[in-house]
Design a protein that fits this description.
alpha+beta; Deoxyribonuclease I, Chain A; 6 helices
C-alpha cells in the first residue's frame, strides 16, 4: 500500500518499537530513505512514532519540549522548506478516564508547541489525536459521552486547536460526510459493520487551506485497527 500511495512523507503512530527493532522491510521501503524514529524511554512496546520522507528534512526535532510527556515518544517534527510536518500520537485518557488529567496537560503543552511552530511557518499535523471531535465523528455518540476520546474536555481541546488558527483538513473538505471513521475495535466485527470512530487527522494551518487539494480516509486498507489518512497539498 505504501508503494502504491507513494507519499512524500509517511507518518506512523503507536509503533511500539525501539529504533533498533524497526523491521527491515520498513527500513527498506523504496522512496523513503530518510527515516526518523522516536520511542518511549525505558518502556519497550509502548507508544512511539516514526516519520519517513522522500527528501531529507531541513531539521528534525523530537518531543514538544515538555519533560512530563517527552519520554513517551509521542511527537516527531520535520521541517521542510515550505512547512513543518508534525507526526503525533496523543495520549489516551485511559479506562475509566484514569489518565484524563495528564491528557489535558498534554493538550495544553502540545497546542503551545504548535503555536510556536506556526509562528515560524505553516504546519501540517498528522496523527492519532485520540479524539472524535463532533457527534458525526463516531458511530454511537450518545452512548460514549463519558468514554475516552469523546469527553467534553477532550473535544474542547480540539476546538481550541481549531480556534488557534488550524483546520481539520477532512472536515473542511467534507463537512457533512457520515460514517467516515479511521478506527474500529477488533471486537464484535466492528469494522465490517463500520461501527467506528474518526480519531486520526490531518490538521493544517489555516493559511495552508489554499494549498489543500484533498484529504482521504483510506478505509479499505487493512493491517491495523486504524486506517491511513492521506493529505494532498500543493506546496
Amino acid at each position: 500500500w505504501v508503494q502504491e500511495e507513494a507519499p512524500d512523507v509517511l507518518c506512523l503512530q503507536e509503533t511500539k518499537c525501539a529504533v533498533s527493532a524497526v523491521p527491515p522491510e520498513v527500513r527498506a521501503l523504496p522512496g523513503l530513505p530518510h527515516q526518523f524514529w522516536c520511542s518511549a524511554k525505558d518502556r519497550p512496546g509502548y507508544s512511539g512514532v516514526g516519520l519517513l520522507a522522500k527528501t531529507e528534512p531541513l531539521d528534525v526535532t523530537y518531543g514538544i519540549g515538555d519533560p512530563e510527556h517527552d519520554t513517551d515518544g509521542r511527537v516527531l517534527t520535520a521541517e521542510f522548506p515550505s512547512l513543518f510536518v508534525v507526526c503525533a500520537y496523543v495520549p489516551n485518557a485511559g479506562r475509566g478516564l484514569a489518565r484524563l488529567e495528564p491528557r489535558l496537560r498534554f493538550n495544553a503543552a502540545f497546542l503551545a508547541f504548535l503555536r510556536r511552530l506556526d509562528a515560524r511557518k505553516p504546519v501540517l499535523l498528522c496523527g492519532d489525536l485520540n479524539v472524535a471531535h463532533a457527534e458525526i465523528d463516531l458511530c454511537h455518540p450518545r452512548a460514549n459521552r463519558a468514554s475516552p476520546g469523546f469527553t467534553p474536555e477532550e473535544r474542547q481541546g480540539f476546538t481550541e486547536l481549531l480556534e488557534a488558527g488550524f483546520a481539520d483538513a477532512f472536515r473542511h473538505l467534507y463537512p457533512e460526510a457520515k460514517g467516515a471513521f479511521t478506527f474500529w475495535t477488533y471486537l464484535g466485527g466492528a469494522r465490517a459493520r463500520n461501527v467506528g470512530w474518526r480519531l486520526d487527522y490531518a490538521v493544517v494551518s489555516r493559511r495552508l487551506l489554499g494549498a489543500l487539494c484533498d484529504c482521504k480516509i483510506r478505509s479499505k486498507v487493512e493491517g491495523s485497527d486504524h486506517c491511513p489518512v492521506t493529505a494532498l497539498l500543493a506546496v
